[in-house]
Amino acid sequence: MTGFDQAVGQALQVHYTVLDAVGQEVAQGQVDGEPVALPPGNYRVRVGLVPELMLEEAQVVSGQTTAVEMD
Fold first, then answer.
1. Is 3 strand, coil or helix?
2. What does the alpha-carbon distance between residue 7 and residue 21 come to, in Å, rounded to a whole number?
3. What residues are paired with 19 via a beta bridge?
4. What are phi and psi of 17, to 5 degrees?
5. Can you tell me the distance from the alpha carbon of 71 to that of 64, in angstroms, rounded to the nearest whole number?
6. Residue 12: how many other CB atoms lie within 10 Å
7. 26 or 8, which is more confident?
8. pLDDT greater than 90 at residue 12
9. What does the longest C-alpha to C-alpha distance in the chain come to?
């Protein structure tokens, strides 16, 4: 892979921010990247697109994996 290919790939990576019930940032990650560990609770996900995308509330349950999908 050339340096140009790597640069384009990095530019196309989409990042997200996880917000808790009061709107505080609690985690960040990359779409289709490594999962983030969160305690049980209700969260909102802000996706770094233009325009910015805010996903509806996602509930994290202890001992389970929660996936949030973008339509």
1. helix
2. 36
3. 25, 44
4. -125, 135
5. 22
6. 7
7. 26
8. no
9. 44
Q: What's the pLDDT tens digit per position in 22-58?
A: 999 999 998 888 989 999 999 999 888 767 677 778 8
Q: 47 has which bridge partners?
A: 16, 53
What pTM did the predictor assign?
0.68
H/E stretch holding 16: strand 15-19
Determine the 3-state secondary structure of 12 from DSSP. coil
Q: What is the DSSP string of 27-59?
A: EEEETTS------SEEEEEEE--SS-EEEEEEE
Residue 60 has a CB neighbour count (10 Å cut-off) of 16
Tell me the sheet residues that pair with 42.
Answer: 59
